[in-house]
Amino acid sequence: MGKLDGRVVIVTGGARGQGEQEARLFVAEGARVVVGDVLDEQGEALAKELGHERARYVHLDVGEEADWAAAVTATKDAFGAVDGLVNNAGILRFNELVKTPLEEFERIVRVNQTGVFLGIKATAPEIAAAGGGSIVNTASYAGMTGMAYIGAYSATKHAVIGLTRVAALELAKRHIRVNAICPGAIDTAMSNPAHLDPDADVAKASRGLDALYRKLVPLGRVGRAEEVARLALFLTAAEDSAYITGQPFVIDGGWLAGVSTL
Ligand SMILES: NC(=O)c1ccc[n+]([C@@H]2O[C@H](COP(=O)([O-])OP(=O)(O)OC[C@H]3O[C@@H](n4cnc5c(N)ncnc54)[C@H](O)[C@@H]3O)[C@@H](O)[C@H]2O)c1
């Protein structure tokens, strides 16, 4: 018995990184998964590897409302219903706030914040029609505290936590739980560009990240996408988290716990 037997879950930004690990774990736990992303080649390859009975890929730019409508239709056509969503897609840009061009700020809002809003809007009626389910929104450590040079990103991640709380209040009566994940530094392409370079030594780059976070993070290393996927599974699986909604869950190796002089 898998924890997600019979469930049908859309995972955005599922072609790589945390979303990919969430898709893999959810399928391993019995779900049928629709991977949505703008990285068509990688998304198609992942769905093929996971198998046609268990996974499909759809092109889904989370900032496009029409893409959401098409993704929901494709999911119902493939697997009959939608009863889970992981709003995982996100982008990060480094810039000093006062030097951030409006266009860059709006691009980050469009993916990280509008994308989450549109995802909730498009899927909630379907999840309700399926009898209830779950929505997990990926916020960030930077949605719980300020962080210099990622002002636009941090603002959107704070907004994701706000959307999570409001959606949880409004959707509880339709048996939809809504929670947020707040990862610290996780070893994906977003924090470790070596993942994007076919010639790079990823293990070496990961060791470099561990060294960087040894002092910053109490648990002394960068986090792994598989660890975040475990939290997404916990918040999606009704048997584990049936009485939990409207909450942000920090997964950061203790980074946010406070200032340490140890
Ligand atoms: N890696 C970290 O350190 C870290 C920390 C905190 C939060 N996060 C958040 O975790 C989530 C996953 O990021 P990741 O670490 O796996 O990084 P990643 O860059 O590997 O994955 C992000 C995915 O989102 C997809 N994406 C980007 N724009 C999109 C769009 N418009 N529509 C659909 N998909 C789109 C990308 O193609 C990619 O597959 C993001 O929301 C990110 O902000 C990451």
Give the low-pLDDT segments.
none
| CATH H-level superfamily title | NAD(P)-binding Rossmann-like Domain
CATH level-3 fold name: Rossmann fold
User: How are the strands ordered across the major sheet?
Assistant: 3-2-1-4-5-6-7
Mean of pLDDT: 97
The tally of beta strands, per DSSP, is: 7
- Characterize the largest beta sheet: strand count, sense, and whether it forms a barrel: 7 strands, parallel
Helical residues, percent: 40-55%
Strand content: 5-15%
> How many domains make up the 3D coordinates?
1
Q: State the end-to-end distance.
A: 44 Å
Structural class comes to: alpha/beta
- How would you describe the shape? globular
Number of helices: 8
Description:
The chain is of the alpha/beta class. The protein has a single domain, classed as NAD(P)-binding Rossmann-like Domain (Rossmann fold). It is about 45% helix and about 15% strand. It contains 8 helices and 7 strands, in the order βαβαβαβαβαβαααβ. It has a 7-stranded parallel sheet, with helices on both faces. Strand 4 (about 85), helix 4 and strand 5 form a beta-alpha-beta unit. Helix 3 (about 65-80) packs parallel to helix 4 and helix 4 packs parallel to helix 5. The longest helix has 28 residues, at about 100-130. The chain is globular and about 50 Å long. The chain starts with 7 loop residues before the first strand and ends in an 11-residue tail after the last strand. The model has no long low-confidence stretch (mean pLDDT about 95). Nicotinamide-adenine-dinucleotide binds next to helix 1.
